[in-house]
Each structure stands twice: as structure tokens, then as C-alpha cells.
Amino acid sequence: MKILGIPGSLRRASINRALLVSARALAPAGVELVIDDLRPIPMYDPDLDDPAALAPVEAFKQRIAEADALLIATPEYNYGIPGVLKNAIDWASRPAYRSVFAGKPCAIVSASPSLMGGVRAQGQLKQVLLGMAAEVFPHPEFAVTQAGHKLHDGELGDEPTREHLAALLVALRAWVQRRQAGPSQSEPGL
């Protein structure tokens, strides 16, 4: 199973990128987590028609299409989704309701130096994903609070948080596998 990790920050030392690096190291057997980079994607402009400028957008959309699921690690900026993440999502959301997000399993995680851990941004991101007909992982929020105390050398060093992240990845794998297998009588609506 291939999971595309999307960090919602451009910072090289992003704690949300570090969260994805840790997720890659903790991924269960049979799961390959590849971390994307939003830096090459231009600002959203529906009038932009330069093929060279749109090449990073098309490549991003292709990576989403090829993934079995997405793991989006979002920071929280001013109580919301970072502009760079929303920009990339806006590009990939076209055509509306038939984009690469339609039906795509997506999980959301966040890390923050605050006590809230980015949960407000998670709520906004969930609303955006559902509006594009993405399938959002029905799991409680995973938020690393006070991340500066839990990250060491660019990875999660806090053992309880590592265990929680590993358990989330196992649950995500199982959920995606059930979705790939099709609906069952024992799981109506999932």
C-alpha cells in the first residue's frame, strides 16, 4: 500500500514534516509512505495556462492519483490551514467533484508547539476534504501538542506519542484495505 504524506509547511525544519518522517519510520508492514514537497506548486490562478508552470501541479495530482491514501500533516496558522497547503489542495481539486481527491482515503495529523496541537486546522481541513468528496479517516484527531518537547533530531522521540502514531497507521492501513475490498454487510456506511 502506498501512502502519500503531504506536509502542510514549507519550512525545512517543519515539525509536521518531522511527524511524517516519523510516520514513515513507523509504517506497518506492507505500507510505503512517500513524503511530498509542495514548494514547486505555483499560487493558484485559474487563468494560468503556461504548461511549464503547470507541470508541478500535474505531477502533484499524479502522485495523489497513484497513492492508495493520503496522510496530511497540517500546521495551524492563525487558527486555520496554512496557505501553502490550501493552495496545493485548490490546484488538485479540479475538476470539481471529479478531482484526484474524489473518493481518496485521507487521514489528518498535526504537530504544534501549542497546547492545542493544530486541531483547529484539522477541523478546517476535514471540511475542505469532505467538500471535495474525499473519504476522511473516521478516527479521533491525532495532534502532537507541545511538539518542541517531543521531537528530537527531526523525529518523534516521545515513546507514547510514537506508539500512538504507530497505532494510527495500523488503523489507517486496515481502513484503506477494507475500502479497497468493497462494502461489507458488517460495515454499513463505511
Indicate the CATH class: Alpha Beta
Q: Which architecture does the CATH hierarchy give at level 2?
A: 3-Layer(aba) Sandwich
Q: CATH-wise, what's the superfamily?
A: Flavodoxin domain
CATH topology description: Rossmann fold
Q: What is the number of E strands?
A: 8
User: What composes the largest sheet?
Assistant: 6 strands, parallel
User: Unreliable segments (pLDDT under 50, ≥5 consecutive)?
Assistant: none
Termini separation = 19 Å
* Shape, per Cα inertia axes: globular
Helix/strand-derived class?
A: alpha/beta
**Tally of separate domains:** 1
Helical coverage, percent range: 25-40%
Number of helices: 5
Strand percentage, roughly? 15-25%
Succession of helices and strands: EHEHEHEHEEEEH
Radius of gyration: 16 Å
The chain-level mean pLDDT equals 93
Task: Write a structural description.
With 190 residues, the chain is α/β, with parallel strands linked by helices. It is 39% helix and 16% strand. The protein is globular and about 50 Å long. The mean pLDDT is 93.
